[in-house]
Amino acid sequence: MKPPRFHYRDPATVEETVAILAEHGDDAKVLAGGQSLMPMLSMRLAYPEQLVDINRVAELEGITAHDGGVRIGALTRHSAAEHSEIVARACPLITTGMPWIGHRAIRNRGTIGGSLAHADPAAELPAIMTALDATAIATSAGGRREIPLGEFFEMPLVSVLGSDELLTEILVPGQPAGEGSALVELARRQGDFAVAGVAATLTLTGDGAIGRARMVAFSVAPVPVRLTGPEQILAGADPAGDAVEEAAQAASREISPTSDLHGTADYRRSVTVELVKRAVAHAAADARARAEGGAR
Amino acid sequence: MTDVRSTPVADPTLSRAVSVTANGRRYERTVPTRKTLADFIREDLGLTGTHLGCEHGVCGACTVRLDGEIVRSCLMLAVQCDGRTLQTIEGVAPGPDELSVVQEAFWEKHGLQCGFCTPGMVLTATDLLQRTPHPTEAEVREAMGGNLCRCTGYQFIVDAVLHAAEAGAGDGAAEEAT
Q1: Size of interface A-B (CB pairs under 8 A)
Q2: How far apart are CA A199 and CA A275, in angstroms?
Q3: For chain A, first and last CA: distance in Å?
Q4: What is the interface pTM, i.e. ipTM, of the complex?
Q5: Segment B137-143 long-range contacts (CB within 8 Å, at least 24 positions apart)
Q6: Which band of pLDDT confidence, cut at 50, 70 and 90, is reported for residue A294?
Q7: What span, in angstroms and rounded, lies between the C-alpha atoms of A296 and B168?
Q8: A104 vs B57: CB contact, 8 Å cut-off?
Q9: Do A190 and B145 touch (CB under 8 A)?
C-alpha cells in the first residue's frame, strides 16, 4: 500500500501545468486533492510516469460570483464550497449536497474539479453539477473550451477531458430565487459511497404546483443520469399528487444500475423509486421554506 | 529548535528536502517524493502515535491536523507539506504528564479498547469540539463517522466525546491547535 515511483512535478501556473500535460500526455496524471488518486496510487491501480501536483497553482482556487451564479476554481476544496456564502446564496443545491460528500477530513482536501474529473458514478458532485446545468472549462496548451456537464462524463472514471487538458474552472448558473433543492441518497453510513442517490431542484408556482423540476440520479448507471422523463411528468404537477409516483416509476426505467456487493441492480432500481419521491418532497419543502423565509 | 537530517537531492522529481513544524518543533528531512505524509510522520519524524490502518483513506486512523484542519495523512504526500504545520496525537496533551480534556474523557468513558483507532478519534473529536463546543449526539456521530473502530461498538466513543464537551474541551478553545 505505498505509491509507486513517479516523477513528481509541482508547477505553479496553469501555463506550466498544461505544458507538462502537452509533453507527457497519457503518461502524466494530475494530482488535485488526492482523495481518490492517492488511494489509486497506493493500491497500484494507477502508475503515472509523471505526477503533476497542481496544489501550488493558486489561480485555480477560489469562488466568485459570476453572472448570477458562481465561478468555482477547480482546486477549490469541498469544505470551502460547503461554507461559502456566495455558493449558499446562488446555488444552494451545492451547499445542501456537501455534507454527503465523504467526511470532514476528506472535504478539507478534496477539490471540486478533482471530483468532477475523477468521474466516479457514485459521487455526489457530478450529479449536483449536472442538475445545475454547470459548464466545465478545460484548458490546454492550445486554448480553452467549455463543456456542459451533461456531456462531460463518458463512462465510470472517464470524462471527455483530453490527456493534454486541465479542468480549470466550473461555471454554475444561479438557481432562481425560491427554487428548492434536495440531495437524497442511500448509503450504509453517511459519507460512504451511495448505493443510489438523487440530486434535485424544483420551483413551485403561486398555486403550489411544480414549475420546473431538475433531477439527476447517481450510482445507478455508468454516468450521472438526467431524469428527463420524470422532469416532464413533474412539470405543472402537484408535488404531493399521483404524478410523483408516476415520475418515480419512470425514473426506474431511465437508469441502468448494475449489481455489486452493496446492492443488486433490482434493489438499486427500487431504491431510486423511493429516492425520487423523497427528493420531490424535500425539494418542495425547501422551496416552501424559502418562499416563507423570503430571503433567498 | 530545529531537528535537521537532510541530505543533498539529485533529482527533485524523485526526492526533496521537506521542512515541517510538528507539535511545535521544526524538522528538516529529505524524502522520496512518493512517500506519504503518514509514513513521513512515522518513519522520518519518529512520531509513531499516528497509526496506519487501511492506507487508502477509509479508516481515519492516520488523521492529523495540517495547518489546523484535519486531514488523512495517508492521502497526502510528505512533499506537499513543506513549510506547513502539523499536529499529531503526540501534540494533543498540554504536557508530558497530562492528558487533554478529550483524552481524559476517552479514558473516563472507556472510549478505547485496543487503542489502534484512538489517535485519529482523538484528533477528529478535538477538531469537532473546537468548531462546535456543544454538539448534539447526532452531530458527534456524524463527525466521528469517518473513523473506524473495530472494538468499542462506537457507543463509548460517542459517550466520551459528549463527556469531553461537557467538561469544556471546546470552550474558548479555537487556538489550542499548533
Answers
A1: 88
A2: 9
A3: 47
A4: 0.93
A5: B137/B162, B140/B165, B142/A99, B142/A190, B143/A104
A6: low
A7: 36
A8: no
A9: yes
